[in-house]
Amino acid sequence: MTTDAGQTPLTIDELAARAGVTVRTVRFYGSKGLLPPPVIGPRRVGHYGPEHVARLALIEELQQQGMTLSAIERYLHRLPADLTPHDLAIHRAVVASWAPDAVDTVSRRELERRAGRPLAPEDLERLAAMNVVMAADGDASADGAAGGDAFRVDSGLLRLGVQLLDVPLSQEAILAAREVLIEHSRAAAHALSQLFRGEVAERDAQDVKSLSAHMHPLVVQALLTTFQRSLREELSEWVTGSGRD
After folding, report:
1. pTM of the entire structure?
2. Are 29 and 56 in contact (CB under 8 A)?
């Protein structure tokens, strides 16, 4: 287990309270291999870290999507073993995207509760620019989102958007990256749909619907894992090349 600098390890009771589950549930998930074992500290007390919190959040999201425990086990066991809490949070955001679009109207206090932190006007402006939050009256501008008391929030994107608030990139760079991802994601989706279309051409509508339900999470997970590995390779080459300059 790795613990972020300055982050206090959690006892099993603290972990359960933070994740909103019981201690018995934490132990059960551990016995199934869904959670990595804790680090055993003084007096044989188990200590848990951010990866345990992130995994519990991912399990909760998978359950909300209707997955059985055995399906969740298979999903988690297919994930790379070296995923960081941030990687797990991205997976959770992707899982949330399987569900129908969930746009809720919430108060400023509820928005900050869901975000897990206070949101300054500039934070709301960035979230509005990413189409994560907008003023409830329909004003999509940054000024409208920052100045209102009620907000429409894309629940599936909120966690990811909040994490991007701390990324040391300009808003312009984040929005440009979003456009790149949207463009290439649409191209990949189109190519895959063409590939699968021939497979289902002779099947009835119910078979097509069943195949789509099974393929959606598998394809999303494959794309995400492949992208993460490719991005790591690109960043590694960039860092290594910069070091030689």
Report:
1. 0.47
2. yes
pLDDT tens digits along 74-128: 888 888 877 888 878 777 776 766 655 567 888 988 898 888 889 998 899 888 8
Q: Which CATH class is domain 12-96?
A: mainly alpha
What is the predicted pLDDT for the residue at 2?
41
Where are the domains positioned within the chain?
12-96, 103-164, 171-244
Question: What are the helix and strand counts (H, E) for the chain?
Answer: 11, 5
Q: Which amino acid is at 209?
A: K
Written as six digits, the tokens of 81 are 């073993």
Residue matched to tokens 């999507």: 65
| Distance between CA atoms of residues 19 and 1, nearest Å | 18
Query: How far apart, in whole angstroms, are the C-alpha atoms of residue 135 and residue 105?
Result: 9
